[in-house]
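Hi there,

I know you've been waiting on this one. I reran it after we fixed the sequence typo, so this is the corrected version. Both the input and the resulting structure follow.
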Amino acid sequence: MIKVIDNWYITVDSYPTNYTVRRGEGKKDKNGKWLDKPRGHFNSLDGAVKEIRRLIIAERFENSVGTLETALDTIVEVDARFEKLMEKIET
């Protein structure tokens, strides 16, 4: 399991390689199956991380009413969080 941001994480299957985006506590049942439902399946880690970013932004827009400027501010805010995260990985 790769913890990404907040309660978003990615599980990895090695063959065939599959990255699954999930959200929740990251727990498994007694049979070893993930309890949190999959939010998407990807063939690259990059694709999975981009999907988490997209889902976070979509959730913020889902129940809000605002201007295009407000929407763009939200995107900039989320992107800044992901940039900080990526900086930590690179160091």
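Quick highlight: DSSP finds two helices and four strands in the chain.

Best,
R. S.
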